[in-house]
Request: fold
Amino acid sequence: MSQKKLEIIKNYISEVRESLARLPLDGVVKVIEILEEARQRDRKVYLFGNGGSAATASHFASDLAKGAICEGKPRLKAMALTDNVPLLSAWANDTAYDNIFAEQLENFIEPGDIAIGISGSGNSPNVLNGIKTAKARKATTIGITGFDGGKLKEMVDIAIIVPNHTMEQVEDIHLLIEHVITTCLRTGTRAERTETGRQRK
Reply:
């Protein structure tokens, strides 16, 4: 391997490590608390994004629906609006690409549900429109973004902003964030019950 490629690899990993060290963990904790409440109250979670963020939305929905299962707790009802390609492309073709998430949410989202918009830049029009619809329906809104947070950070109830300006690295950390959230939902409640049981003894 050439020295130049080795330096690129080292720099990339170093930049991700630095961004992780500056990640706003309080926002991650708040999202975990919101999702924990959502499953207790039988609320639904809708996720959406474009490109790599679309893949993360699908991955996150899968993990919430299966990976977050915790014995003794209700299961989370999570759905990625990126997964129904015929419906997504119908709205894009018949109206505009900016409407592909908002129009789907019009069918499903209810007060108290959760909408999670994922956008590296925080400025994707279809993600912003989806959040607008969710807010109009009195849903809780969460933005997972990067760079400076874009317009998304001002629209949502809670924003997790990855402090990084390289899209690939932002997307890497978004995936790590969703895995951390899923892990806490799956194991945190068990740990709390175990600790509570010890205290009672």
